[in-house]
């Protein structure tokens, strides 16, 4: 008989792959931000919004780095990262045709609920990629999803700002800048920053989200679910916003990781459960959690 511990140890068997990913493109953006596309057919076939990959940045540095998947299609995946530390600095050297070892897809993805079609996607900084992935999955789904993305950054966005032709009720028309990719998908999005970028809301993502929520009637509000990824202070503020409106909220946590497959327990967070507090691993028990269960 297989014990509960053995079942837990085998939970990710045949779901996480090691691949030699070929660099297809590597775009540089201001403030040391990069978008990396890798040919990785096994990972691309099973990735979901909220999952991530563990990359070997360079042969000189054996320790891998976790990066959220922004898009996955056909035989490739795409990640967005900002250079922090020597590992990601080494990764910037990779050019088309080079090989990057990757482990993935890892983690529990976001869960979609058809009775909550008004999806509010909130992303901050390098927490933007999972929100792009959610939008991509929803636009390809047959269900009538109505996502709105609110994305924030305190450095230049890793895309050219575009004025949106998609109106958003409750948000000032002067707040018009959007992400071209989402605009092309006909998914409304608005941008926020404290840096005074053209067409962006001057403030936090939660300020703009609050304005939009205030404008909804009872039925519309009852159909909202919040999805978020970004720095911990932002996620805590999003969780408080969701609690104020009594809305379900899923958040993807950012945490330092060593193994990223649950063995080292170096990325644990405290979660509230019916049986009391428990320590959960962000890599395999998450990174997506119910915001209401996190001991902020």
Here the CATH topology of the largest domain equals Rossmann fold
Overall helicity = 10-25%
The count of DSSP E runs of length 2 or more, i.e. the number of strands, is 17
Instruction: Based on the coordinates given, report the CATH architecture of the largest domain.
Output: 3-Layer(aba) Sandwich
* Sequence of strands across the biggest β-sheet: 12-11-8-7-13-14-17
Largest sheet: 7 strands, mixed
SS content category: alpha/beta
Query: What is the overall shape?
Result: globular
Whole-number count of domains: 3
DSSP helical segment count: 8
Distance between the terminal alpha carbons, to the nearest Å? Answer: 38 Å
What is the class of the largest domain in the CATH system?
Answer: Alpha Beta
Can you identify the CATH superfamily of the largest domain? Nucleotide-binding domain of ferredoxin-NADP reductase (FNR) module
SSE sequence, one letter per element:
HEEHEEEHEEHEEEHEEHHEHEEEE
Radius of gyration: 19 Å
**Mean pLDDT over the residues:** 93
Strand content: 25-35%
What can you tell me about this protein's structure?
With 296 residues, this protein is α/β, with parallel strands linked by helices. It has three domains: 15-106, Elongation Factor Tu (Ef-tu), domain 3; 118-254, 3-Layer(aba) Sandwich (Rossmann fold), CATH 3.40.50.80; 255-296, Ribbon (Dihydroorotate dehydrogenase B (pyrk subunit), domain 3), CATH 2.10.240. 22% of the residues lie in helices and 32% in strands. It has eight helices and 17 strands. It has helices at residues 4-9, 41-46, 86-91, 128-140, 180-184, 205-214, 218-222, 232-244, and strands spanning 17-29, 33-39, 52-55, 65-73, 76-82, 99-106, 118-124, 148-152, 162-163, 177-178, 189-193, 201-202, 224-229, 249-252, 268-273, 276-281, 288-290. The strands form four sheets. The chain has a seven-stranded mixed sheet, sandwiched between helices. A six-stranded antiparallel beta barrel has the order 1-2-5-4-3-6. A hairpin with a 3-residue loop joins strand 1 (17-29) and strand 2. The N and C termini lie far apart (38 Å).
């Amino acid at each position: 008989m297989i014990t509960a511990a053995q079942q837990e140890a085998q939970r990710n068997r045949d779901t996480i792959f090691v691949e030699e990913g070929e660099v297809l493109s590597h775009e540089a953006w201001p403030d040391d931000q990069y978008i990396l596309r890798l040919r990785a057919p096994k990972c691309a076939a099973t990735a979901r919004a909220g999952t991530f990959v563990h990359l070997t940045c360079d042969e000189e540095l054996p320790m891998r780095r976790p990066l959220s998947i922004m898009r996955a299609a056909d035989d490739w995946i795409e990640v967005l990262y900002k250079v922090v530390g020597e590992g990601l600095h080494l990764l910037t050297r990779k050019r088309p045709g080079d090989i990057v070892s990757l482990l993935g897809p890892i983690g529990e993805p976001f869960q979609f609920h058809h009775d909550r079609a008004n999806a509010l996607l909130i992303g901050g900084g390098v927490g933007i990629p999972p929100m792009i992935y959610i939008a991509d999955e929803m636009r390809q789904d047959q269900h009538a999803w109505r996502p709105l993305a609110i994305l924030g950054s305190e450095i230049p966005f890793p895309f050219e700002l575009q004025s949106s032709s998609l109106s958003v009720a409750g948000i000032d028309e002067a707040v018009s800048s959007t992400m071209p990719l989402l605009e092309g998908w006909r998914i409304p999005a608005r941008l926020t920053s404290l840096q005074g970028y053209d067409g962006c809301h001057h403030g936090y993502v939660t300020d703009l989200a609050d304005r939009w929520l205030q404008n909804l009637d009872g039925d519309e509000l009852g159909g909202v679910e919040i999805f978020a990824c970004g720095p911990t202070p932002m996620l805590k503020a999003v969780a408080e916003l969701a609690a104020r409106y009594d809305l379900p909220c899923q958040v993807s946590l950012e945490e330092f990781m060593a193994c990223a497959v649950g063995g080292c327990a170096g990325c644990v967070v405290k979660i509230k459960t019916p049986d009391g507090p428990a320590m959960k691993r962000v890599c395999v028990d998450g990174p997506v959690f119910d915001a209401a269960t996190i001991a902020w």
